[in-house]
Amino acid sequence: MFSGARAKVKWAEQHIARLSDTLGDFLKSGSYRASIDPNTQSRFYEIVQTRPLPESVPFLIGDAIHGLRTALDHVAFEMVERANRTPSQGLVFPIKDTRAEVLDAMKSELQAAAGTDIVSLLLDGIQPHRDGQRPGHSLWILHRLDCVDKHRKLLTAVEDVGFHHIEAVDEEGTTYTGLTLTSVGRGELQWPPRVRGKKLYLRNEGQLNFGLQLHEVEAADGESALPLLNRLKSSVISTIDRIADAYSAGAGSV
């Protein structure tokens, strides 16, 4: 059931995988350079971005989001078809700011085709609106990001830059392995508490890492892109499965 919608999710997964690969290649390509004094602590670490993020990054995010959003539209289309009706050209899966707006959007085509049990599931189970619980609120985020992406690139930024797997020795000869030197957002790099304040002699530079964040104030400000996309994907899959289960249990009659 809902094979078209599930195929759209699979297509979105390919964009998410491509995004992950693109970010990994960007990191490995020397796009960031670390300039380190081996006898000092974090205040002398310098991270210099030598290349901008690939132009494809916001488009890959947008394509994944659009694939997930249209997967839900495929669900709405099939719901109407299952009632032996012809879906209208403008039919979309209802995601609105409020519960009342969701109900109003379903009053004609979807409500007539799906029946009271499915309408109740959408309104009070899935809750696809701004104040809805999960997965509904996640669907609202998905919808808002898709609306933004239709008109401009989604805003992204490299943040949470840090070094991992650092090995160092302090003045007393104590060796530390697996140290991390991280920042939160765009803040100053910091050592973990157990070595903070010590003078360290570094045996290696560690491995540079970073996070890619979305900066869309209304829907996803400061959200890490890959975890967010995977959360949105899970919410879409959950929504499809719950509606399919309801039909399998006999719902859908007017």
Describe the structure.
This protein has about 250 residues and is of the alpha+beta class. It has a domain at about 5-150 and about 220-250. It is built from 7 helices and 7 strands, in the order αββαααααβββββα. The protein has helices spanning about 5-30, 55-80, 100-105, 110-115, 115-125, 135-150, 225-250, and strands spanning about 30-35, 45-50, 155-170, 175-180, 200, 205-215, 220-225. The strands form 2 sheets. Strands 3, 4, 5, 6 and 7 form a 5-stranded antiparallel β-sheet that branches. It has a two-stranded antiparallel ribbon with strand order 1-2. A hairpin with a 4-residue loop joins β3 and β4. The chain starts with a helix and ends in a 6-residue tail after the last helix.
Helical content class = 40-55%
Radius of gyration: 24 Å
Q: Please state the oligomeric state of the protein chains shown.
A: single chain
How widely separated are the two ends?
19 Å
Largest sheet: 5 strands, antiparallel
Following the backbone from N to C, one meets helices and strands in this order, namely HEEHHHHHEEEEEH
The percentage of residues in β strands lies in 15-25%
Describe the secondary structure blueprint for this structure.
Layout: H1 3-28, E1 32-35, E2 46-49, H2 56-82, H3 99-106, H4 109-114, H5 116-126, H6 136-149, E3 156-170, E4 175-182, E5 200-202, E6 207-216, E7 220-224, H7 225-248
Antiparallel strand pairs: 1-2, 3-4, 3-5, 3-6, 6-7
